[in-house]
Amino acid sequence: MNKVKINTEFIKLDALLKYASLVGSGGEAKTLIQDGQVLVNGEVCTMRGKKIRPGDKVSLGIKEVTVE
Question: Which of 18, 22, 14, 6 is nearest to 55 (CA)?
Answer without folding.
Answer: 6
